[in-house]
Amino acid sequence: MSSESEMQNVHAELPRIELSDGGAWILGARGMQRFDFDGEGKASHPYASIGHVYASERVLLVGTDEALITLREDDLASRDPQAERDRVLAAIGASPEGVAVLEQIEAVERLGEQEGLARVVWLTVALC
Fold first, then answer.
1. Per-residue pLDDT of the chain (128 residues; tens, 9 = 90+)
2. pLDDT score of 10
3. Three-state SS for 85?
4. How far apart are CA 35 and CA 24, in angstroms?
């Protein structure tokens, strides 16, 4: 079994979203995994389960089949939700299923741009 420092070394080279509480979302080859500051894994989401990634100046939202991951500007060590969105999309694009997932994300974005459906999309986000 790996020690905590060995686990951190394994993940050190992977892209990540550093959190202000010392934890991180590790952006692995096939998905995102949340680690606390002590290196303990808390949540995992395969990229294939991601339906949308949205960022404003104040929040990063990642919608999956099971959850809506909400990272406020204050939660991010970088304090830059837009940059973190780009990092997530790059990791998704580099994954084996990346093209299909990015196409799905783009389809959701196109839905949001339609006048009549925008309310339905935002209602769905609110309910998640």
1. 344 444 455 556 889 999 999 999 999 999 999 998 877 788 999 999 999 999 999 999 999 999 999 999 999 999 999 999 999 999 999 999 999 999 999 998 887 777 665 666 666 666 66
2. 53
3. helix
4. 5
Closest CA to 59 of 75, 38, 43: 75
Backbone angles phi, psi at 26, to 5 degrees: -85, 130
CB neighbours of residue 50 within 10 Å: 23
| Side chain identity at residue 57, one-letter code | E
d(CA 89, CA 16): 12
Element (H, E) at 26: strand 24-27
Neighbours of 27 (CB within 10 A): 22
Which letter does DSSP use for residue 73 in this model?
G
Whether 17 contacts 84, CB under 8 Å: yes
**Residue in the block written with tokens 């949001």:** 112
Question: Using DSSP, how many helices (H) and how many strands (E) does the chain show?
Answer: 4, 7
Q: Which of 106, 120, 123, 18 is nearest to 54 (CA)?
A: 106
